[in-house]
């Protein structure tokens, strides 16, 4: 048991280091953040499955796919293949997204709670569903994605602590701080974008 726990801690430490690298590179809008994300998610997928956080494990499989899509999008997406510009969403669009995601999360939480061995099913489903939506926001460079991550990461701290994943909990505490810094940086970069047509708010 000690050997198994030691091995898991080692893998968790590597996943955490790669996850921090991903976040720091994402704050700089570097396309290489997605390579770090892919490696980190591979490790976290196995870790979360091992401790019966099924939705978190499935979420990381999704992250793996999104890492490939995000790299392609940031490298060659956008108008004229020049990458994706920062955008902002209206409060109405955010309200619709939050309401729809919360409703889906409640349904998934109920199904997981009644039909699987998942622990903390509703919280697991809520963080998972919102993380899926927010990852799309990151790929599309929606400035407000960082505010979503602050809430998601705060909830994840409790989720991981309850399963004994101390390093992951520490990572998400760091994420809360860095997400706020990331929001400030992207908001400032949005204002400084050279082409107004690309910097307009999305309705």
Automatic annotation (TrEMBL):
Record membrane topology: Multi-pass membrane protein
Cell compartment(s), UniProt: Cell membrane
UniProt keyword Nuclease present: no
Keyword terms of this UniProt record: Cell membrane, Membrane, Transmembrane, Transmembrane helix, Transport
Regions crossing the membrane: 6-25, 32-51, 57-74, 95-112, 118-139, 167-183
InterPro entries: NMN_transpt_PnuC (IPR006419)
Pfam families: NMN_transporter
Family: Belongs to the nicotinamide ribonucleoside (NR) uptake permease (TC 4.B.1) family.
Protein purpose: Required for nicotinamide riboside transport across the inner membrane.
Name of the protein: Nicotinamide riboside transporter PnuC
Lineage per the UniProt record: Bacteria, Pseudomonadati, Pseudomonadota, Gammaproteobacteria, Alteromonadales
Gene: pnuC
